[in-house]
Specification:
It is built from ten helices and seven strands. With 237 residues, it is α/β, with parallel strands linked by helices. The protein folds into three domains: 117 residues, no CATH class; 58 residues; 49 residues, no CATH class. The strands form two sheets. Strands 1-2-6-7 form a four-stranded mixed β-sheet. It has a three-stranded antiparallel β-sheet with strand order 3-4-5. A hairpin with an 8-residue loop joins strand 3 and strand 4.
């Protein structure tokens, strides 16, 4: 982790972590480090990770030397290795789609920002889609979308491109939204989930600047369904 007091350093973190660092720097009237984030679908329960590792064949209680949720490819595999060098792996589609994604922490389900809006630069997968528009998670050459959210972030991206570190081209924001349907739906239905949680008697955070009412009015049916579903689940917490 970079030093928050050193504006010449950089921090990579989840959107929530980057938002906190941005707010901390502002409260101190300081220039923050370069803030880098990524599109985040939430943090899965540790129980889900443990269960997946056991299902893949690692003995319960075995000491682990490494765990990788994805990588060594794009999107890459979930990978775990025990202290004796035995390793297991499974595809991203299987690990996230069947095991980890459904076990995302409840707090993450009420998060308004999965795309790193407080960062100088946020990065996300620019998935290739199948004929129905669903992201294709088969392993292939990676392609990412970079969003410069500040002038500082734009300058860093341009300099990296000029020096040959990365290759960039312009992309239509609507094309990004089309291959990131989870992020679009999550933001559009967030007000419904907040309402459902509150109706079930749970305290909920208050957000400003995310246009949640406007988004809810654009998708009233989906918002009502999200509220009802969250209410049913929240009553069991």
């Amino acid at each position: 982790m970079a030093n928050i007091d050193n504006p010449g350093s950089a921090v990579v973190g989840k959107p929530c972590e980057i938002a906190a660092l941005r707010a901390l720097a502002k409260s101190r009237d300081q220039q923050p480090p370069l803030l880098l984030s990524f599109f985040c679908a939430g943090v899965p329960s540790q129980h889900a990770t443990d269960s997946l590792i056991r299902e893949l064949g690692v003995e319960e209680g075995a000491e682990l030397a490494a765990v990788r949720y994805r990588g060594h490819g794009w999107p890459g595999d979930f990978y775990a290795e025990d202290a004796r060098g035995n390793s297991v792996r499974t595809s991203y589609d299987d690990s996230w789609g069947k095991h980890l994604g459904p076990a995302v922490q409840q707090r993450c389900k009420l998060c308004p920002d999965g795309v790193g809006e407080s960062a100088d630069i946020s990065a996300g997968d620019f998935w290739r889609a199948d004929a129905k528009g669903y992201p294709d998670f088969t392993d292939q050459d990676g392609l990412s979308v970079l969003i410069a959210r500040t002038r500082r972030g734009e300058e860093v991206i341009r300099r990296a491109a000029q020096e040959g570190v990365i290759s960039v081209r312009a992309v239509d924001p609507d094309d990004v939204a089309a291959v990131q349907p989870f992020q679009v739906v999550r933001r559009a239905t967030l007000l419904g989930r907040l309402a459902g949680s509150r109706l079930a008697g749970h305290p909920t955070p208050s957000y400003r600047g995310f246009h949640l009412w406007w988004l809810a009015l654009r998708s009233p049916v989906r918002t009502l369904r999200a509220a009802a579903g969250t209410f049913r689940r929240a009553r069991r917490w």
